[in-house]
Amino acid sequence: MDMTKPKLMLFSHVSNTKSITGAEKLLLLFCRYMSPYFNCILVAPGEGKLTDHARKQGIQVMIQTFPLLYGMYNPDSRLPQNAEELRSHPDYASVVRLIGETAPDLVLTNTIVNALPAIAAKSLGIPVVWKVTEVIQENEFTTDVLNIADFYSDWIISISESAARVFLGRISSPISLLPPSTDSERLHSFSEMVRQSERKGLRLKEEHKCIGYISAFIHPEKGLNEFIRMAISLCPRRPECRFVIVGRAADHRYYDACLTDVRFSGYKSRFQFIPFVESVQSVYSAMDILVVPSMVSEGFGMTALEGMLCGKPVVAFASGGLGELMVSTGNGHLAVPAGDVQGLADKVAGLLDDPAALANTGFHNEATARAMYGIETYQRRLDEIMNQWRTLYPHWLMPGNRSPLIFAEPEVPAQPPAVQAQAPRKGRRSSRRKTFRIRIFRKRRLNNFARKSRKFPIKKALRKLKIKRAKSAKRRKGRKR
């Protein structure tokens, strides 16, 4: 660890074992590009893809479980009480101890539902940066979310204007905008040879047009049902269309219902369902169009950005940060209101009808996405945030501000507590248990002896066993004499 740099402790809300979510990817990217400024320590609730990737990048990893506060995303009347009850959760003391013993100069908590690390850090007087990746649902209880986030944070980083909008003018903590980026070295337009190889693996012919859907975990909010309805509506007039769906089922009932719709559509042979791929960028290379039909207001839209960086036309619902991304990259004309399945179908059909527009949109997307959301732009925006911290909170960037806290172990009384009256009862209980075990043992021996005896009936076997026991007892007495 570089002693000339301060320590930044980053808390991830999840650590999935089979796939890695957009929020996990963003936290990993943030860790990597904060490393020049801080000694980064990633804390995750368990081992998974996130911790594996972090260790490979040389990031220190710690494992600590803690509960999430989902009411911060979709608030209700019990939110303040639930937030206070976190202090009574068994994991709260463990998180406080972990932070105290590690002594970071700054704590970052990832996603709005990850409230416990912020509360724990604040209890120790450590500054908190809260990274918001979601669009908070607004209702009559949203003020409670803002009060909690404002009280337990010193700075808020939002990944989009849509995610930041609910905070603007309503909290005292400063807010910075840091839109996502991704590993652009791996995400790019692939050669025709790679594309043909991937399409061959998916059993796609030259004349087929591949329409793709990708989600790490599939549940109703990710719009698979809407994608399938769009696809089925295209099938009668578009025999060249094939549909590839990549993602694991998070809601199995919903996923099975989607499979049933495909099965009874009469077009089952045109669909492929792939639970997981090791290299998602290779799947993008096989696609002709990517569809992102998210039914909720997304904080951003990492899948859409990845598709654009791979040079693919993207059609999407204009929901939250996803709609914001579509407009900022010049794809606003390919975004339709959330739930408009026919609108999706029309946009896809329009691109298929104009091969030149299809190709040009892919070229445009790769260039624009790289210019607006490439890693160089991300680094520049991060440097701007660091300059703001140097101006307003220079001690955040100075190492050794805090010493590890020493937590006293529970004191052991010099004398045993005065509950001697219970000792005989405990002894009697132990004696009863011992007697019970002896009885069970003897009964098992008796049953085994009876089963093994083929020559004698049960009564004779019992008589023989008693004689054997008497002889054994007599021998023991003789030894004692």
Automatic annotation (TrEMBL):
Alphabetical list of CDD domains matching this protein? GT4_PimA-like
Give positions of region: Disordered.
416-435
- Which Pfam families does this UniProt record tie to the protein? Glyco_trans_1_4 (PF13692)
Keywords noted in UniProt: Glycosyltransferase, Transferase
Q: Where is the composition biased (Basic residues)?
A: 425-435
Cite the PANTHER family for this sequence: D-INOSITOL 3-PHOSPHATE GLYCOSYLTRANSFERASE (PTHR12526:SF510), GLYCOSYLTRANSFERASE (PTHR12526)
Q: What is this protein called?
A: Glycosyltransferase involved in cell wall biosynthesis
UniProt organism field: Paenibacillus favisporus
